[in-house]
Design brief:
9 helices; 2 domains; 7 strands; 53% helix; five-stranded parallel sheet
């Protein structure tokens, strides 16, 4: 198991054990159990949790995980024997974070369809975060600045119902920085982002991340579904 996954697992179990120990209540006159023995077992559970913290700080995550598991096992045994009462914290289902990105210059139906499809990849209650390319990034890659300034493009994308949050990208674009900041479960890419797809897949594979990379197909409906079509129509209109 990757070290970053072990770290997350240890932190989760330790938080659960700490919650349980803070909630422990001793049962009066427990069946066939000595009160002193019960307190001794609870103290042992606390010691195991202390050991778990120690080994976590030493980055010995396997030993830390074993220690916190012993802690939880002792507490569960006492509860099953009717010696103590406590509740494990309710584990809320984590919303999947979906990351999408683009320039979104001259926002159109194709953009909306792309973002709707992107959010669907995360399933029910997914959170869609959209990175809007900076003016400098667009100019560097395409040789021309976008028509709509970056702050206005971000505001327009953020106003869409399907988008939970829209943020501007880094001036010095780096896919690793974006992933570290957002920590997405899924990264979606448009049909025309072949270079980006290659870079993202390589990064995810090299770092051993459990991030799903999804390519979204082209929206084919006959409409003004691309910025280039909109520009062409404007040029054609004004030539009349």
């Amino acid at each position: 198991m990757k070290s970053h996954n072990l770290t997350e697992l240890v932190s989760k179990y330790m938080a659960s054990a700490e919650h349980a120990l803070a909630d422990v209540k001793f049962v009066e006159n427990p069946p066939s159990l000595d009160a002193n023995d019960i307190r001794t077992v609870v103290e042992a559970a606390k010691s195991y949790l202390k050991d778990a913290k120690y080994y976590r700080d030493k980055k010995k995550f396997e030993v830390s995980l074993a220690s916190v598991t012993y802690c939880e096992g002792l507490l569960d045994a006492l509860r099953l024997l009717g010696a103590v009462k406590f509740e494990w914290p309710v584990k809320k289902k984590k919303r999947k974070i979906v990351l999408a990105s683009g320039t979104f210059d001259l926002l159109h139906l194709g953009h909306v369809k792309y973002l709707e499809e992107a959010k669907r990849t995360g399933g029910r209650n997914a959170e869609l975060i959209v990175i809007v390319a900076r003016d400098s990034t667009v100019e560097e890659r395409r040789g021309t600045k976008p028509i709509i300034p970056e702050n206005q493009r971000r505001a327009l994308v953020g106003s869409l119902k399907v988008v939970d949050e829209a943020i501007l990208g880094y001036e010095d674009f780096d896919i690793g920085n974006v992933i570290e900041k957002i920590k997405p479960d899924i990264i979606t890419l448009g049909y025309d982002r072949g270079d980006m797809e290659r870079d993202v897949r390589n990064y995810v594979e090299e770092k051993g991340l459990t991030i799903k990379v999804v390519k979204i197909g082209k929206f084919e409906e006959e409409a003004l579904n691309s910025s280039s079509k909109i520009k062409q129509k404007i040029i054609k209109h004004y030539k009349r």
